[in-house]
Amino acid sequence: MAKIVGGIGTSHVPTIGAAYDARRQQDPAWAPLFEGYVPVAEWLARVQPDVLVMFYNDHANSFFFDCYPTFAIGVSPEFEMADEGAGRRPLPNIQGHPALAAHMVDSLVTDEFDMCTFQERALDHGCNSPLALMWPHVPAWPGAIVPIEINVLQHPLPTPARCFKLGQAVRRAIESYPDANLKVAVIGTGGLSHQIHGERTGFNNTEWDHEFLRLIAEDPQQLVAMRHADFMRLGGSESVEVIMWLAMRAALGERVTCIHQNYYLPTTTAMAVTVYEPAEATLNEAADVENETASPLANTEVHA
């Protein structure tokens, strides 16, 4: 079966992409953000996933309010980057993985998730704003993507619990894929606290952001039990999109180890990026390191 090597939670703000394209990585205002993604890129380079399964929401660039699916999975052999009104970003197309995507669709439908499928729809900043910071892409990306769109824009939204169950079903789908050599990393995008309209425009809640980051790693069931209104009250109306992190977290299993976390609030959105490994993977890696560093005489018979 295919193997899930870990997961990433990340904000997906369009200004990240704009600053990156303008080469502002060393600007004092942006450096703390970009530096936070360096360990993520190093982790991906180390574990070398073949595929990124990415939970994201489209911001009415490829899906529109006349027909916005609750859950949709991309099955194309290739995906373009969307032009969101300021010209397409200078990023290459990225490969899909149709075989894995088709298997996941079959598995998810069997698991009672009524999935839409899509082809030839470009990926907007919900995917590409953090992706370029984590994966090298010149001249091409090092692997493929299976994007899973989640509706966090148009009523009715899926509940936090439903997103968590989706992540559990995605785990079962990946682990039943009959390629034992395939390595998959799962990414959840969105948030953190922000509101971009209404009386609370510009609202942030750093205390809640850090509590959310603690709970997503240690006790996600507390987040699963919350309502959309709870997320909006604590983090602003747009912060409800962090329910996509719950899908990522559920795909990693019961316990995880957070090996990296960065939080920065430079604009109207609190930006965070985290890396999680399944707890058993971390324990196995520690055992391997211990074995490699053990004395070469540890298991050798000594005769007088």
UniProtKB/TrEMBL annotation:
<dbReference type="GO" id="GO:0008198">
    <property type="term" value="F:ferrous iron binding"/>
</dbReference>
<feature type="domain" description="Extradiol ring-cleavage dioxygenase class III enzyme subunit B">
    <location>
        <begin position="8"/>
        <end position="274"/>
    </location>
</feature>
<dbReference type="GO" id="GO:0036238">
    <property type="term" value="F:gallate dioxygenase activity"/>
</dbReference>
<keyword id="KW-0560">Oxidoreductase</keyword>
<protein>
    <submittedName>
        <fullName>Gallate dioxygenase</fullName>
        <ecNumber>1.13.11.57</ecNumber>
    </submittedName>
</protein>
<dbReference type="InterPro" id="IPR004183">
    <property type="entry name" value="Xdiol_dOase_suB"/>
</dbReference>
<keyword id="KW-0223">Dioxygenase</keyword>
<dbReference type="Pfam" id="PF02900">
    <property type="entry name" value="LigB"/>
</dbReference>
